[in-house]
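Subject: complex prediction, re-run

Hi both,

The earlier run crashed halfway through, so I resubmitted it with identical inputs.
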Amino acid sequence: MNSRRDFLQTSMAAAAIYGGAGFGNWAKLAAQQALTQDQLLEFDTFGNVSLIHITDIHAQLKPIYFREPSINIGVGGNKGAVPHLTGADFRKLYGIDDGSPSAYALTYDDFASLAQTYGRVGGLDRVATVINSIRAARPDALLLDGGDTWHGSYTCYHTQGQDMVNVMNALKPDAMTFHWEFTLGSSRVNEIVEDLPFAALGQNIFDAEWDEPSELFPPYKFFVRGGVKIAVIGQAFPYMPIANPGWMFPEYSFGIRDEHMQEMVDEVRGQGAELVVCLSHNGFDVDKQMASKVQGLDVILSGHTHDALPEPVLVGDTIIVASGSNGKFVSRVDLDVRDGRMMGFRHKLIPIFSDVIAPDAEISALIDEQRAPYVQSLSEVIGQTAEDQTLYRRGNFNGTWDDLICDALISEREADIALSPGVRWGPSILPGQDITREDIWNVTSMTYPQAYRSEMTGEFLHVVLEDVADNLFNPDPYYQQGGDMVRVGGLGYRIDVTKPQGSRITEMTLLKTGERIDAAKTYRVAGWASVNESTEGPAIWDVVESHISKQGTISLDPNNSVQVVGT
Amino acid sequence: MELTRRSVLQLGAGILVVASVPLKAFAAGEDLIESFTGGADIAEGGVTLTAPEIAENGNTVPIEVDAPGASEILVMAMGNPTPNVATFKFGALSASHSASTRIRLAGTQEVVAIAKMQDGSFARASATVKVTIGGCGG
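This time it finished cleanly. Structure:
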């Protein structure tokens, strides 16, 4: 007799073969012209339930370029495990050919030249076409949004998230969970959520004063689809008041709260749930650990760390699905649920190639309507990239966008050292491309944009780097916050990711003099995105715009200032 | 005494440790355990300590202890200058042997709960709570 695990593994193998059909064959399609919408959407409908997962859109309504990371280090038990594989290692694991559409979508090599061939990715009007196609095959498919939706663009900032709310509402999700949404401030979040036409879930969203589950965000919701009683449990980003300014939403407390998650799973199972889905904004490694501690989760739809994986990862009997970011991917997960159990699944990570998938006309019009009042300002060209200069952010350490932002901080704020947050959002710019105001906002937009300038001792700078490094490289995923290392300008250092907090960072060097940072000496530091209340300074997008317009054409020196060991 | 949730909170507020000095108190915590147990063996398990992995605010960290069959539970913040946080005592007729409070932590450290059972045995649980200056979310 087949155990449940055998079923899952069989179907994992089937999914891998299927994934091969979806991904491997593309390698034979030499050019974009040969890739069709039908191939991207091809899916043999399976079982009786379909889940559609999209996450971490970061307000990217329109098609963009998005380069995946070249460095994504796993530590502890996750060393060398997905999603901590990049480039050739990633392609080898999944059998992806160099130069193929999948290589372009999922890895970083030859990004600029492959982008010329395969074009932009994302666009919620293209996403709408994919969703409609899945719904045509399975009309009662569940659409689940993993959060980081109402944040990350010029129009999202100026409408306080309303542009995204309007467009997402038209896509008719069934449930959502949250992270950056809370940086709109709790009163605005509450206002939107009270009128939201779908479930706003978070089993770990608590009332801060009484440490009790918040009333506005229920822990779960039941759906009956394909005759199956499904419980969707929400898991918001656990470290919101730490990674983002807690003073903007003081009424709320978060945390992983896996004991409470277990209670919720037991509760929904007790009420007859045959399938339990966790819509999570934990980040991938945290989800893996949670899956090993909480019993009874069938599927975790994982968000936050922006990983895009062509196959689910299996932890015990739980499958974990990671669906990328910035509107670049949609995951479809078909499940066979019988006799109150998940018997098998079929999965496809669908890359949204904007030039291949036709936009949905209704959603296109709705997107343009949101942007119309701002189009003139959005499209203003501020500068260009040089013929060999790509701008990107993703990766554990500085991307070129970060280098540019740090240069802007140092020159515009007259500082020795610049610090820039290690966020994972922000589209890429190709060589020789215009940089518009919209592009600058896409990598800087937030509700706490003040570019401060302050004095810090060498000792304090070391504490800052060690603190952020531990949020990324602590071997226990529950102590990781899911961002990347703080970006630095004017400062070099060596990091040993295997060391404990306090001894990872050494050889800190002030680049302009080549001298070692002196613990007792004071340095002029400019930065932005401080979580502290009453931070003062001009908005970062103005600082960056001013710098780019002075430069005209952007050409950056290669950044070799961070030496990484222990990977 | 009937412990309502509010009175537990007030109790918690009353015993907040006010401190901003470096962490050097681990030995003091060990001494406290010694005097609480009289040097008896301490088993792992039998007491549950619930605490956040990372404190949202190190000045007020919610924790909860639960030990069925306990007569007393000692709670300590091992890295605080004064590790003693609270001792909860439960009478024979107590319906539940759990309590929650909020504590102040001077930095990343281990929080320890030791339960004295009605039969005189001891049980221990601990959790590392990280106090961080904040990072940058994805």
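The longest strand of chain B covers residues 109-117.

- K.
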